[in-house]
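Single Protein Entry

Contents — chain, fold
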Amino acid sequence: MGEEDEIIIVKCPHCFTDFHDAPTETALAQKGGAQLAEHDGTRWSAFARIYPACGQAVIDLRRRKWLRGGGGVTAVPQDSDVRVWPRGVARAPLSTHVPQKYTGDYREACLVLSDSPKASAALSRRCLQLLLRDEAKVTHGNLSSEIDQVLAAKMLPPPIAGAVDGIRNIGNFAAHPMKSTNTGEIIEVEDGEAEWCLDVLESLFDFFFVQPKVLAEKKAALNKKLTDAGKNAMK
């Protein structure tokens, strides 16, 4: 990257802190040292940077193809970048309060999202069904009927309830009943469906696991202060 290149601010995909992006470019070379180039002159480079807040690396591959103009028009580069590391999309780190039986499918759904939204959504639907059965205690059925049970019980705050119901609407369960009857089935997805499923899972994780644990810890700390002061603890 030359001095004339603009320095931009980006967000670290590992720790989500802002950083002045100034990656190091390394041209990929063939045996003997010549730069790797395809028959049409397309060249490849690797861009790498270490984010200071977390010390982790981010690596991209760049494919630069030259669009040659006629009549004396100068050729211009057309770049396409592919993220090599980290794989997947940047999502907020999961709390340690979320049980491991849910984190596997969730993390894999994040990992494959950029490569296969269909596979990501299937993993998320399967994780959602397990969550509703084990935490909301719904009667086992298909995913659509289990969502109905949760909504009828009014156990979720309205914004989260609406988000859960939205999984059926965005996913068009009426046209794709396999999404409800076989949650792990890899089926075509609507635009934004896979991302929405991940958003809903994060909201449910916060509701079922994170907030109760945080409130319990705060209550315990307050009760200790009360008892140390000779007062009655909260019930």
Observations:
- The first strand starts at residue 8 and ends at 11.
- The first helix runs from residue 100 to 112.
